[in-house]
Amino acid sequence: MVYELKDVGVRINGKDILQSVSCTLQKGRWISVIGQAGAGKSTFAQVITGLTPFCTGEYTHNGQSLPGDRRGKRTAVPQAGYVFQFPEQQIFETTVYKELAFALKVKGAAPDKLDEAVKSVMGQLGLPESLLQQNPLQLSGGLKRLVAIASVLIAEPELLILDEPTAGLDPLSRIALLKKLQAWQREKRRTVLFISHQIEDVAEYSDEVMIFTQGRLLAHLEVNELFLRQSKLLEQAGLPLPEPVQLLRWMEAASGRSLEPASCREEDILRLVRPVWQSRGLHHGG
Amino acid sequence: MLVFDQVDYHYRRGVPVLRQLSFTIRQGEFTSIIGGNGSGKSTLAKLMNGLLQPREGQVKLGQLNTLNPEDLRGIRERAGLVFQNPEDQFITTSVHDEVVFGLENLRVPGEQIADRVNEALRAVHMEEYAEAMPHQLSGGQKQRVALAAVIAMKPAILIVDEATSMLDPQGRQSILDVLHSLHRQGMTIIHITHHMEEILSSGRVLLLSRGEIVFDGTPSALFGNVSLAEHSLALPFAVRLHQALGLRAPLCADWKETITGLWSMS
């Protein structure tokens, strides 16, 4: 399952929002999309899912061109599920059960299959069954977000697009949600497109990263390649380095040594930095 | 001085949201309020400026009491509230008008309005956007306009409810810079946040859990004495680094400053 864009552009009200974007989204990868506010991240995601029509270029899904786009028509993109930035933008049913069952119901699923699928997706995201008859719009911000994600996951999309899925969640809920989504993605070998301002989460969970700046795709790289070897690209896009990578750079400059961690994840960087720090007799306050 | 005296609050009878809250916030303090989702932080913010009234107990701002309807206007003049989503509070079509709106409602004399608007927009570095439409700005810019609309009213206390949670790192930093600058000018700041690194530069932290205050003290004391995971919170990177490297230096928001100082002494 591959989604491919070639020279895709989007122009809205005479303004270029996306310019000449070419990329391939491979099956089974967690691909993060980063960039400053207004860089074109959400528009890119909406083009991928067919919510925003593109004006130039080509978009194919498994080699099949998605037609109708150039005339400004929206094309439903097969197997792509989109979780909006604000859950209120997508929740519309009166109970959690109806909200979750909607996607399968329109596909004609039998009632017993619906019950099974609803219970399964609630279990995956740790949602208690006591919520089933509650109004999703009256739930707390965190629970509302989980319901919105569950309502998309239930259709088992090949490509899951998450637009700032953790904004407004407390730290442990944020970590727990990302771990659950990663477990789902790995178990089912699905592709995730993860739009986030949380650069530390991007370093922690991604396989690949796409950086947008001023409507253009500046780079699309493996996560370690970007953060450990080509981090200047982040500066170019006006983005901060994750704090563990900043620590690594600081330690390299202070010690005059080149340090090669196993990955850009915090755990691997701290494991490498700790002995260098201690070798100066600095542990326990120096 | 803002005083909560044995305050209880519930939306539905039998489901308490806040329980027996008592604390005092003194003028000029920079206080962060933290807590997991559903711990009651936003309800607390709304009680502070009289948008909600306690079911039991009382909330007083100086001599004014949020239970007295005749005091509410004075309370809202003195305690400004900025929400998580700035779009919740935009009602006009230009940045300038957005800031003017609150001042007109306060019946600020016309000849003072222009100066107050310019001053507020300057404070949040948005003076060049006076004629822009609020809805066409970036998230960080929108939030700064929302802040300007509140600070133009010159509140004694500014309550900021997760105003940085939807912003990119630059947007977040720009809001924090404005809050610290206002604090240096003497404004009392109450900053409600999920971003634990943002609390390191606060003088005081209140931790809310299941509607009760379970910690009231400095950030260092919080990180040294409280198991944050029990309250759905996590340590910020600066503290994780302190622990990983076994640092005994005082906790500082700028961890690079700490390790540079120690390294140069070795």
Automatic annotation (TrEMBL), chain A:
Claim: Translocase is one of the keywords in the record: yes
Compartments reported by the entry: Cell membrane
Membrane topology: Peripheral membrane protein
UniProt cross-references to InterPro entries, sorted A to Z: AAA+_ATPase (IPR003593), ABC_transporter-like_ATP-bd (IPR003439), ABC_transpr_CbiO/EcfA_su (IPR015856), ECF_ABC_transporter_ATP-bd (IPR050095), P-loop_NTPase (IPR027417)
Domain ABC transporter span(s) in chain numbering: 3-239
Record GO terms (molecular function): ATP binding
Alphabetical keyword list: ATP-binding, Cell membrane, Membrane, Nucleotide-binding, Translocase, Transport
Protein family: Belongs to the ABC transporter superfamily.
Name of this protein: ATP-binding cassette domain-containing protein
From TrEMBL, chain B:
Domain of life: Bacteria
Keyword Acetylation: no
A molecular function (GO) term: ATP binding
SMART domains membership: AAA
Pfam families listed in its UniProt record: ABC_tran
InterPro entries reported in the protein's UniProt record: AAA+_ATPase, ABC_transporter-like_ATP-bd, ABC_transporter-like_CS, ABC_transpr_CbiO/EcfA_su, ECF_ABC_transporter_ATP-bd, P-loop_NTPase
Keywords: ATP-binding, Cell membrane, Membrane, Nucleotide-binding, Translocase, Transport
Primary localisation category: membrane
Family affiliation: Belongs to the ABC transporter superfamily.
Protein name per the record: ATP-binding cassette domain-containing protein
Annotated source species: Paenibacillus tritici
